[in-house]
Write a structure and sequence with these properties.
It is built from 20 helices and 26 strands. The chain has 615 residues and is α/β, with parallel strands linked by helices. The chain has an eight-stranded antiparallel beta sheet with strand order 3-2-4-1-10-9-11-14, covered by helices on one side. The chain is globular and about 80 Å long. Bound molecules: fructose -6-phosphate.
């Protein structure tokens, strides 16, 4: 949800900022902009609606002269995505430029006060209010830029990660954060800042994660200073080593990041499982559980909170935890949970699931859960993100950077970690028998090879995708473990192809949605050989008898569906609780190819962003 990037050092800032913006474009691509302070202290600002490529066309030569700059890629919240609302925003005098990720909630009140002092506004954004406020404070109290930023932020309610530069000062950049992420990359004689560390990869592996309510004062050839927003005291600097390579940020020969990420799943699941299945597949080790045995032993209820795809993983997690741990489980949309007055106490465990670790609703949900005394456990992909830093313990899924906006490898990683977590808690509480544990762990251990085999359906699914050029609606049906898989399959299709798709529990269809079925409404049925297989066959017959085309995802060698469904896609057979991981592969591919056939930009679908840091 908006990406910011900044550079101060000996090199030309412009190219570094543009490359950084391209790496952050997954956070929003409604508009982009750059502000450079050149060696003479002149501020050059260029911005453009649309993607970074548009910005490159409008930015002029002046931009290439400076070695200090800030830049922004936007996912619009306040005001439509046009050139004027694009960041950087500049103060009334033209002296101060600012980029911002987040939302200033009290911007209307601040704007009114500033208008009363004669300030005029060009854009409809909340951000312009902040830059004007900084200028107003700086001019009226004759203070330094860092102090004006600090005093302005003390008046701001909401979330922000900001970077600020000033005309006539080519040697200083100020950054600050609250709730929105900001990382500082420290090189030999240069400093980078960004919403995540991807823009620094290739330049430095030394990073500092700015904390909430911290301000960073970055001055050329001087040590970095961090100060506390509230008391203006210096805070300690903790430098960490970044574990990211350039290869992880490139398409690696694939047409799109999404296709690369689908095909990466054998190796990402290997990374996700590494070191966690031990003693010849008889024991699972998750340090987050080992270190908090008492909490897990005494838990009376587990609540899973998440959004979007991660929420679908949570639904599968519920079933896994109920099956293996016999603990009551609830699943909540984080956005509902945070305002739902949840009743929690210290016997509750709240598990948050988030790929980015920055989703605002999920972050707020766990903060609330902690205030109410629950033990909060995080399942996250991005190392060092806000959610893992705000949980009591947790497990990383370790699937590497997911750049395609539609989640694929993170989903299979989340379900894998949830399986390990359920087995680990079950092992601790003695609610899973040794044979079951061994069978599931043995199959999980082979999951990288199983997924590799599942990916062999690629040419078949690609061909099948062309059959559905007529469809404007799809129904995805599944039962038990695969009802959430159906929801996830439908979400993948709608977000990248813009075709309406509904996921439904197969047996519920007869209570309403069956009315929609005709020869123009295909259904995708997730029907691996599991305990509900016979039941789902009769659900499929109900669809067929109303003229709808049926694509069935079935376990290899199971022929009962062949005579009923129009198309069958086979997946390798695995224990029932692991079928969602394997069945998602053809669903990801189907959504992918349908979207590609329609000429859509699958990596950057319209209106979406990868990291949803606003409510
Ligand atoms: C869908 C998708 C979104 C995210 C959701 C939560 O493909 O990517 O639905 O799953 O925005 O994001 P995280 O997992 O980062 O909290």
């Amino acid at each position: 949800m908006c990406g910011i990037v900044g550079y101060l050092g000996p090199k030309g800032a412009y190219d570094i900022l543009i490359q950084g913006l391209k790496r952050l474009e997954y956070r929003g691509y409604d508009s982009a902009g750059v502000a450079i302070v050149d060696g003479d202290g002149k501020l050059h600002v260029h911005k453009s609606r649309g993607k970074v490529a548009n910005l490159e066309q409008v930015a002029n030569a002046g931009c290439t002269a400076g070695s200090l700059g800030i830049a922004h890629t936007r996912w619009a919240t306040h005001g439509e995505p046009n050139d004027v609302n694009a960041h950087p925003h500049v103060s009334q005098s033209g002296m101060i430029a600012l980029v911002h990720n987040g939302t200033i909630e009290n911007y209307a009140v601040l704007k009114k006060v500033l208008k009363d002092h004669g300030y005029e506004f060009k854009s409809e954004t909340d951000t312009e209010v902040l830059v004007q406020l900084i200028e107003y404070i700086k001019l009226t109290s004759s203070c330094s830029l860092p102090e004006a930023v600090r005093q302005a932020l003390l008046q701001v309610e909401g979330a922000y990660a900001i970077a600020v530069v000033e005309q006539n000062d080519p040697d200083t950049m100020i950054v600050a954060r609250k709730s929105s992420p900001l990382v500082i990359g420290v090189g030999e004689d240069e400093v980078f800042i960004a919403s995540d560390a991807t823009p620094f990869v290739g330049y430095t592996d030394k990073v500092i994660y700015l904390q909430d309510n911290e301000i960073g004062v970055i001055r050329r050839n001087q040590p970095l200073q961090l100060i506390s927003l509230h008391n203006n005291e210096p805070s300690a600097i903790s430098i960490q080593k970044l574990q990211l390579s350039l290869a992880q940020l490139e398409k690696g020969g694939y047409d799109t990041f999404m296709l690369k990420e689908i095909f990466e799943q054998p190796s990402t699941l290997r990374d996700c499982l590494r070191g966690r299945i031990v003693d010849d597949c008889t024991r699972v080790v998750l340090s987050g559980v080992e270190l908090n045995k008492e909490r897990f032993m005494n838990a009376e209820r587990i609540t899973l909170v998440a959004c979007g795809t991660s929420w679908h993983a949570a639904l599968i997690g519920k079933r896994l935890i109920q099956d293996f741990c016999q603990i009551p489980v609830e699943v909540e949309y984080a956005s509902e949970f945070r305002y739902g007055n949840p009743v929690l106490n210290n016997k509750d465990i709240v598990i948050s699931i988030s790929q980015s670790g920055e989703t605002a609703d999920t972050l707020a949900a766990i903060q609330l859960a902690r205030e109410k005394g629950a033990f909060v456990y995080g399942i996250c992909n991005v190392v060092g993100a806000s959610i893992p830093r705000n949980t009591d313990s947790g497990t990383y899924i370790h699937v590497g950077p997911e750049i395609g906006v539609a989640s694929t490898k993170a989903f299979t990683g989340q379900v894998t970690v949830l399986t390990l977590l359920a087995l680990s808690i079950g092992q601790l509480r003695g609610t899973v028998d040794k044979e079951t544990l061994h069978n599931i762990l043995s199959a999980l251990d082979k999951m990288p090879e199983i997924i590799k085999e599942a990916l062999n359906v690629d040419p078949e699914v690609k061909k099948l995708s062309r059959v559905f050029s007529y469809a404007h609606n799809f129904l995805y049906l599944g039962r038990g473990y695969n009802y959430p898989t159906a929801l996830e399959g439908a979400l993948k299709l709608k977000e990248i192809s813009y075709i309406h798709a509904e996921g439904y529990p197969a047996a519920e269809m007869k209570h309403g949605p069956i009315a929609l079925i005709d020869h123009e409404m295909p259904s995708v049925i997730i029907a691996p050989s599991d305990s509900l297989y016979d039941k789902i066959i009769s659900n499929v017959q109900q669809v067929k008898s109303r003229g709808g085309a049926v694509v069935a995802i079935v376990s290899r060698g199971n022929t009962a569906m062949t005579d009923i469904a129009d198309f069958c896609i086979e997946i390798p057979e695995v224990p029932e609780c692991l079928t969602p991981i394997v069945a998602s592969i053809p669903l990801q591919l189907l959504a992918y190819y349908i979207a590609v056939n329609k000429g859509k930009n699958v990596d950057q679908p319209r209106n979406l962003a990868k990291s949803v840091t606003v409510e």
